[in-house]
Specification:
By secondary structure, this protein is α/β, with parallel strands linked by helices. The protein contains nine helices and 15 strands.
């Protein structure tokens, strides 16, 4: 951390952030601390404000947070534009500013694309620790992009019995490439499937990782999700028909006030009652899975505490490797 009087900050490009090499296991451990602190009421994190330039499906969000136990304070300014894929740009882009908690001085500015991808997978995996069956073997992924990859990586850490992967994407070639990549990286028997239902039915864990849409396309219908399955809805409820959501025994999120705030903006029109948030699950204030046949879901929105849990790890690892550029304030 910077000392009072420091007039330089560290700039880390996307390549620098990735080269810092922070492992998914370390990110998962940091998020567990952050959510335990949240569950104990010791974090500060207002609901994120946002604007939607050009389309309700485009967003720019400001995400501040303070985690005393990790001595991490800062803000992420992040955008998600579904049309970027056709432009050859990432769906998610943005910057993260980390501040010295003693002085408020900015000490680092870094690209947030990699951090967002990794911490989102880690948050779903943390939810899976409490909501998925420990013996889950078959994983279905709908949306074979960045989030699909980090979710397989994170879920493999917390569900050691995972053995099969069924990958679906609207681009069959991308699903095929994803299956091959995940098989090589994680030792899974991975196949690309031709229909969304094949990536849901018969699966113990389902990840929906498409763009976040204000009006859900509601592809996944009632009766598709197996009894005993856990779903991570990374794209809000975009993939889910309200009748399919009504079959859930437990619907959870990462922060109830933020979900209700987003709901005021017209999202989440057809969701069931919220059973718990992730802080309540981690601290044991609310129960996770209570029966082998329960259908459970984590619809995590992505929180600023996720980012602020990871950012100090990146700065520390980057400094050890001599990465980044010092800039004057």
């Amino acid at each position: 951390m910077a000392m009072a009087g420091n007039t330089q900050l560290l700039y880390l490009s996307r390549a620098d952030v990735e080269a810092a090499g922070v492992s998914m296991a370390r990110i998962l451990a940091a998020l567990e601390v952050a959510f335990r602190e949240k569950g104990e009421g010791r974090t500060q994190m207002p609901p994120k404000p946002g604007v939607h330039p050009g389309s309700p499906d485009n967003f720019l969000h400001a995400m501040p947070a303070w985690i005393p136990a990790l001595r991490s304070a800062g803000v992420k300014w992040v955008g998600g534009f579904p049309g970027n894929t056709a432009r050859g740009l990432p769906y998610i882009t943005g910057l993260l500013v980390l501040n010295d908690p003693d002085t408020g001085v900015p000490i680092a500015v870094m690209d947030c694309t990699w951090i967002t991808a990794m911490r989102t997978g880690a948050a779903s995996a943390l939810s899976a620790r409490h909501l998925a069956r420990p013996d889950s073997r078959v994983l279905g992924v709908l949306g074979c992009g960045v989030q699909g990859r980090t979710h397989v990586q994170a879920l493999a850490l917390v569900l050691p019995e995972l053995a099969e992967l069924r990958a679906y994407d609207i681009d069959p070639a991308r699903a095929q490439a994803f299956a091959g990549e995940m098989a090589a990286a994680h030792g899974l028997a991975a196949v690309a499937v031709a229909t969304p239902r094949e990536a849901v039915g018969g699966c113990d864990v389902v990840v929906t990782a498409g763009p976040i849409l204000k009006t859900p396309h509601a592809t996944i219908k009632a009766g598709w999700l197996e009894p005993g399955a856990f779903a991570a809805a990374v794209d809000y409820d975009s993939h889910w028909d309200p009748a399919a959501l009504a079959e859930l025994d437990k619907f959870t999120t990462d922060d109830t006030p933020q979900l209700l705030k987003v709901q005021e903006g017209g999202y989440f029109a057809g969701i069931p009652p919220i059973h718990a948030d992730l802080g309540e699950l981690v601290t044991g204030r609310k129960p996770g899975r209570e029966g082998a046949a329960e259908r459970t879901m984590a619809c995590n929105l992505g929180l600023a505490i996720d980012d602020m849990a990871v950012a100090p790890l990146v700065v520390e690892a980057a400094a050890e490797r001599g990465l980044g550029v010092l800039l004057p304030l």
